[in-house]
Amino acid sequence: MSRILLADDDVELSEMLTQYLAAEGFTVDSAHDGDAALARAQIGNYDLVILDVMMPRMNGLDVLRALRLKSLIPVLMLTARGEDVDSIVGLELGADDYLAKPCNPRVLVARVRAILRRADAAGPAGGEPGAAQHLALGDVEIHPGTRDVFCRGQPVAMTSTEYSVLEILLREAGHVVSKANLSERALGRKLTRYDRSLDMHVSSLRKKLGALDNGQERIKTVRGVGYQYTRP
């Protein structure tokens, strides 16, 4: 049974979502301000954090920023509808996904399950079906069984979502992967209009891995189509 921390200052909404998540088989604890959310997330041994952006004492973005200094625990951000800047900043800081409020509880549960599937790094279930336990291409090496990533021999810390995106692009290296395909395989959901999630995860991968040794861009954007990992 997965343990979830739900951090939102709207007590009534938190109670409703807690009941819905509990009915779906999750154990849920709540926090109603940023300080409490950060403290619980750091010591509570949770499998996932649902984190609202607008909270007293410390906002959700600051909580995520502090959390990412020490932890790669999966985080789903809740943002006010129409606040695209908060969504983008959350993804830049290392959120796995985001959802605009007010949200449909069924959609929330689907997003939570998709994130938890990506975060499951245990045994042969890691990576895509039939994935080998080791994949190396140029200066990058990944281990699907443990979801470890190395670049130029050095470990690179990645969220579960970043890893999923990277593994798919590596396995398709030299070929263009459409955004629609990548969204379904890496995020576990269909691509929606104006969704910037993949763009931000790819941007994070570029920052963490850098360019190829010959200066070529490691992950190319094919305008209007998707992304292509460059074969060295």
Short recap of the structure:
By secondary structure, this protein is an alpha/beta fold. The chain has two domains: 3-119, Response regulator (Rossmann fold, 3-Layer(aba) Sandwich), CATH 3.40.50; 123-229, Arc Repressor Mutant, subunit A.
Describe the structure.
The chain has 232 residues and is of the alpha/beta class. The protein has 2 domains: 3-119, Rossmann fold (3-Layer(aba) Sandwich); 123-229, Winged helix-like DNA-binding domain superfamily/Winged helix DNA-binding domain (Arc Repressor Mutant, subunit A), CATH 1.10.10.10. 38% of the residues lie in helices and 22% in strands. It has 8 helices and 12 strands. It has helices at 11-23, 34-43, 60-67, 84-92, 105-119, 160-171, 179-187, 197-209; strands at 3-7, 27-31, 48-52, 75-80, 97-101, 135-137, 140-143, 148-151, 154-155, 176-178, 219-222, 226-229. The strands form 3 sheets. It has a 5-stranded parallel β-sheet with strand order 2-1-3-4-5, sandwiched between helices. The protein has a 4-stranded antiparallel β-sheet with strand order 6-7-8-9, covered by helices on one side. Helix 4 (84-92) packs parallel to helix 8, helix 6 (160-171) packs across helix 7 (179-187) and helix 6 packs across helix 8 (197-209). The chain starts with a strand and ends with a strand.
Topology record:
Elements: E1 3-7, H1 11-23, E2 27-31, H2 34-43, E3 48-52, H3 60-67, E4 75-80, H4 84-92, E5 97-101, H5 105-119, E6 135-137, E7 140-143, E8 148-151, E9 154-155, H6 160-171, E10 176-178, H7 179-187, H8 197-209, E11 219-222, E12 226-229
Parallel strand pairs: 1-2, 1-3, 3-4, 4-5
Antiparallel strand pairs: 6-7, 7-8, 8-9, 10-12, 11-12
